[in-house]
Design brief:
Layout lengths: L3 E4 L5 H11 L5 E5 H16 L5 E7 L3 H10 L7 E5 L4 H10 L5 E5 L7 H6 L6 H15 L3 E3 L5 H7 L4 E4 L18 H7 L3 E4 L1 H4 L4 H10 L2
Parallel strand pairs: 1-2, 1-8, 2-3, 3-4, 4-5, 5-6, 6-7, 7-8
Helix pairs in contact: 1-2, 3-4, 4-6
Length: 223
């Protein structure tokens, strides 16, 4: 199965369904984020699941442990393949999220958003080294018992070396000739996979292409 999960970051469910249907033979799953979920809710997730691809529900929970545990438990009927929580929520929150998740659902911890760089880390009082921050949070996620992490392609090699059986989600992936957009730490799909990525999250290079199916096939061919 393809390691590509197409990010359908749109509130328009008909557009999301149309793109997913067109690319379904060249991607391994569908990523649905806050934008989609807030507009379409659980019913929308069910409709997307009917297309027949695994669902990555990217809601990035970050709250007190009890609240996150109950929120994850509320998602059980949707049986998502993957869900996200923020690693910076701490060990107890990560443990509660994993304990509440359905059997078979991977819980992955977001380390550092790919839209952030060293200057952003400094502005919120953290060490200005993205690599150091990601490795620290990866160690926390591993010890808390979740399945893996979300990190950029720049850090996934080090994280994979320290966590051989971890599940690594790499967003901010762009083809060699693609625009970075609002992403600051990007790599090519091939480079991310070679560095240890388990799945690649790719949105705009596919969804905003004139022919999404062709774009997905061209990216898949590089893998």
């Amino acid at each position: 199965m393809s390691p590509i999960y197409v990010a359908l970051d749109t509130p328009d469910i008909e557009r999301a369904k149309a793109i997913a249907t067109r690319v379904r033979h060249h991607v391994g799953g569908i990523k649905l984020g806050l934008e989609f979920f807030m507009a379409n809710g659980r019913h929308g997730v069910h409709e997307m699941a009917d297309i027949g691809l695994p669902i990555f529900l990217d809601l990035k929970f970050h709250d007190i442990p009890n609240t996150v545990g109950k929120a994850v438990q509320a998602l059980r009927p949707l049986e998502p393949a993957i869900i996200t929580v923020h690693a910076s929520g701490g060990r107890a929150m990560l443990e509660d999220a994993k304990a509440a998740a359905p059997t078979g659902t991977k819980v992955v911890a977001v380390t550092m958003l790919t839209s952030l760089d060293a200057n952003d880390l400094t502005s919120i009082g953290l060490s200005p080294d993205p690599h150091e921050q990601v490795v620290r949070l990866a160690e926390l996620a591993k010890s808390a018992g979740v399945d893996g992490i979300v990190c950029s392609g720049e850090e996934v090699k080090a994280a994979h070396a320290a966590w051989k059986d971890g599940f690594f989600v790499v967003p901010g992936v762009r083809p060699a000739n693609g625009s970075s957009g609002d992403q600051k730490r990007v790599v090519t799909p091939r480079a991310a996979l070679d560095a240890g990525a388990s799945i690649l999250v790719i949105g705009r290079p596919i969804t905003q292409a004139e022919d999404p199916d062709l774009a997905a096939r061209e990216i898949e061919a590089t893998l």
